Amino acid sequence: MKKVTLLIAIILMGLQICNAQYTEKMSVIALGNFTGRYAEELHTAVIASASKCRVGVTLVEWEDVKDNPDIAATVDYILSGSTGEITTKTTRGDSYTFYLCTLPFSLTMMNASTGQVIDSRSTSRKSNYTDQNTSLNDVVKLDGSVRPEYNSLVYKNCSIRVPIQVIQDVKRNRVETVIIAGGSDIGIRDELTFDVQMESEIAGKKIYKNIGEARVKEILSGEMTLCTITKGHKDIMKLLDDDVTVVLTSNSKDNFGEAVNKIGDFLFH
Questions:
Q1: H helix intervals, the chain
Q2: Bridge partners of 214?
Q3: Predicted structure pTM score
Q4: Do the Cβ atoms of 77 and 46 come closer than 8 Å?
Q5: In the CATH scheme, what architecture does the domain 28-158 have?
Q6: Smallest Cα–Cα separation from 267: which of 105, 104, 144?
Q7: Could you give the CA distance from residue 145 to residue 113 in angstroms, rounded to a whole number?
Q8: Which of 42, 255, 265, 267 is the one with CA 20 to 30 A from 179?
């Protein structure tokens, strides 16, 4: 029995198991309570981050919709945030003085239907200058630090999954481009990246195995997107030839660049 269990575990390694359906609408996030001395700056940074995230969502203010049952019922998640107090660390050398200012902040995502917290991020914005006032003024500019945290929450909890609709271009038995059954209406934006997955079913649950990668080439409409296959060309082609269901699921690889920018801000400011 233990050998069988181990075998099943090995088989399922690297597979995603869920009951999720294909994405049919853009996720709706309501901005909830933002607290702390720099709550306004955090709130503004979240809105700016949402405008640049490659998974689009509909943002609303919870205060504006909570008393309207019809609109409130469309909200998927409530996103709240808080900021701490700025701390300053002074480093003095023979010919220099640096002021490292740190502003902690957090973001919390809650399921709007159940009220249950499903995810959160806590980190801080750091600014390091030889002039204390410059460092203090800079550390409250939260956009660059908030963006990777916001992206991480959205990529994980508002992921997009859509099937391949049409094989657009094939070269030497390699699928190069495909059209997927989803576009701007469900939140797909330029340069969004995807895991290409083989879909199957075990005991009534959908199983998704990564077989390649893709990236948005052109959003054709609210319901269709042209994607370039960047990895797994031949495997994808074979599965499609065998009439196996192949889907694209948005991934978080785009967030790496934002994380690098965040590190750069810390090192060079």
A1: 2-12, 39-52, 62-65, 69-72, 132-139, 143-157, 233-241, 255-268
A2: 194, 229
A3: 0.84
A4: no
A5: 3-Layer(aba) Sandwich (3.40)
A6: 144
A7: 29
A8: 255
